[in-house]
Specification:
Radius of gyration: 16 Å
Low-confidence stretches: none
Number of domains: 1
Number of strands: 6
CATH class: Alpha Beta
Structural class: alpha+beta
Largest sheet: 4 strands, antiparallel
Order of helices and strands: EHEEHHEEEHH
CATH topology: Alpha-Beta Plaits
Distance between the termini: 6 Å
Helix content: 25-40%
């Protein structure tokens, strides 16, 4: 891994109130499609990810000249709009759990305090990658990390190629 000026980041975003808005695969696909778009548009490299029912973790690197704050903002805004639209069509009861009384919005999908931490060393990078890959195991969703569909674990552990947008961390 080359640690350039723009270090890889460990990014965590949580659904507001820890609601399980991402429980359906179609909702998770919104996240996947957004990551795929950002990679295709040459804005980011994605090294690893896991999408749980109420939060996600991504290890990514923002590519110059893009700025971390802009990519995060756009990613969260776009996915929130898409998730809201999906729920309006498929699960209005779940969407109702997102209602807020804010002057600028009726619904709030993501908590406002997403976390982004620079990964300055390979040791910390691999710790975070192991952490995200073991998240579904620790949650009791599978026995082995590579069994969980919405994760990059299969890419690294059994050479599964479900996610063509992943950049190997040792490149």
């Amino acid at each position: 891994m080359v640690y350039e000026e723009n270090h890889p980041q460990f990014f965590t975003a949580t659904i507001n109130e820890w609601n399980h808005l991402l429980k359906d695969d179609k909702a998770k696909d919104i996240i996947i499609n957004s990551l795929r778009f950002l990679v295709t548009e040459n804005r980011i490299n994605v090294y690893g990810f896991v999408i749980m029912s109420n939060h996600l973790h991504i290890i990514w690197r923002i590519k110059s000249p893009c700025l971390l704050k802009n990519v995060q903002r756009d990613f969260l805004k776009y996915t929130a709009q898409q998730i809201k639209s999906y729920l309006q069509q498929n699960d209005t009861i779940l969407l109702d759990t997102c209602k807020v009384n804010h002057h600028d919005r009726k619904y709030m999908i993501w908590k406002t305090d997403s976390l982004s931490v620079d990964l300055y060393s390979e040791k910390v990078f691999t710790q975070k990658l192991d952490y995200i890959h073991n998240n579904p195991v620790n949650a009791g969703l599978c026995n082995l990390p590579e069994e969980y569909k919405y994760s990059s674990a299969g890419h690294y552990l059994v050479n599964k190629s479900d996610w063509e947008f992943i950049t190997d961390y040792d490149e």
